[in-house]
Amino acid sequence: MAKQKNITLPDLIMSAEMWSLCIGIIMTILGIYICANPVTSLVALALYIGIAFMVTGAGYAFSSASADLGWGLFVGLFDIFIGLILVANLGITAASIPAVFAVWCLAVGIIHIVRSVRSYKSMLPWGWTFTIGILGVAFSFLIMAHPMFGAFTLTTLIGLYITCYGIFSIIEYWYLSKLKA
Fold first, then answer.
1. Cα 87 to Cα 93: distance, rounded to the nearest angstrom
2. What is the CA radius of gyration of the chain?
C-alpha cells in the first residue's frame, strides 16, 4: 500500500490552487468595493497613478538620456511632473483626475504622432505609433468633454476588471483542484 503524504499548512499555503482561490476572493471583493465606492477609489487611484507616473517617467528619462532621445526624455520628465502633481494634491487630484489624465493623453498622443511621422520619414515602422497617438488625442477630447463621466467610467472599468480577474482566479482554483483529484 502506498504511503500517503501528510499535507502541512505551508504545503497548503504554497499550493497553486490555494493561491488562486485567495487571489480570487480578495480581487473579487476589491473590485466590488471599487465599483461601490468610486470617490474613495478615485483618491486611491490618484495616489497609485501618481506613483506609477513617477516610476515610469524616471525609466523613460534614464533610458532616453543614455540613448540621447530628446522626445523620450521629455515624456519621462513630463510623466514625473504629472506624478508629483497627483501625489502632492490627492483631494484635488481625485476631483480633477479626468482633466489631468486628458492633458496627459493629449500630450503623449501628440508626441506619438510626431514620432510616427519621424519614423515614416526614416522608413521605419510607424503605423502602431501613429494609431496610439490618434487614440490618445481622441480619448483626451472625450474626457475633456465629459469629465465626471470620465472619472466614474475609469473607476467602474477598473472595478469591473478587478472583479473579473478575481472571478477567473476562483474558476482557475476550481479547475486546478479538479486536476489534482
1. 8
2. 22
